[in-house]
Amino acid sequence: MSPNGYVKSETSEGITRITFHHPQSNSLPGELLVNMAGAVRDAGRNEASRVILLQSEGTRAFCAGASFDELLAVSDMEQGREFFSGFASVINEMRKAPCFIVCAIQGKTVGGGVGVASAADYCLAHESASVKLSELAVGIGPFVVGPAVERKIGKAAYTEMTINATGWKSAAWAREKGLYADIFDTQEAMHAAAGKLAATLAASNPASMRTLKEIFWAGTDHWDTLLAERARISGELVLSDFARNAIGAFKNRKK
């Protein structure tokens, strides 16, 4: 198993399964973000792919968000902008993919992981899949993922998550707010439901799904520019003494 993690993509019977993994609770360093964005883009261009099923490896965390090691390694604004642009690219490729993206959330998800879940068209989750936007607690803010999260759950719920940056929201709360379509008491049931839905969509009319996707995401054409600007803001803030101290302290607590 690679110490740097991986992104795998396999297409069969109309379904492209994109799976990511990182040994640090499925966190997302820059390399994985680039690979994930590329996998989504390639699936969207593949005529054999009618639906994308996005998931992470393991039975615990779905995604721990940004890599703290890489955040602490940022030494200038350009490096910071480039790192956060990785999340922008994943979200933009997900919204622009001409097919639906179904996401299976098997466990807790934080920060950028919440952004990935929000950019999916349909999320199924295990009952343990609580969510948190922790960015403010480490001196930054959910600037890049914010538009996707707000679009999915509304401004009030997004504001609540952003301000209470140390508090977890349950999977039931996430379902109530619209992030999850359904939750399951076993991971096996969740994966089975995700696979069944993906198979149904793979047998549906691609032209109809493509048009519906465009309708669902209407009004987001400016996100290429918007998320690039948000990445610049995050890249600047991560250089502050406050952010560096907060990220370092949080990383030490996790050891």
Could you characterize what this model shows?
- It is a single chain.
- With 255 residues, the chain is an alpha/beta fold.
- It has one domain (6-188): 2-enoyl-CoA Hydratase, Chain A, domain 1.
- 51% of the residues lie in helices and 15% in strands.
- The protein contains eleven helices and eight strands.
- Strands 1-2-3-4-6-8 form a six-stranded mixed sheet, with helices on both faces.
- A hairpin with a 2-residue loop joins strand 1 and strand 2.
- Helix 1 (30-45) packs parallel to helix 3 (77-96).
- The radius of gyration is 17 Å and the shape is globular.
- The two termini are 21 Å apart.
Write a brief caption for the model.
With 255 residues, the protein is of the alpha/beta class.
- Which class in CATH terms? Alpha Beta
Model regions low in confidence, pLDDT < 50 over at least 5 residues: none
How many angstroms does the end-to-end distance come to? 21 Å
Report the CATH topology name: 2-enoyl-CoA Hydratase, Chain A, domain 1
Q: How large, in whole angstroms, is the Cα Rg?
A: 17 Å
User: How many domains make up the 3D coordinates?
Assistant: 1
CATH level 4 superfamily: 2-enoyl-CoA Hydratase, Chain A, domain 1
Helical stretch tally = 11
Form type? globular
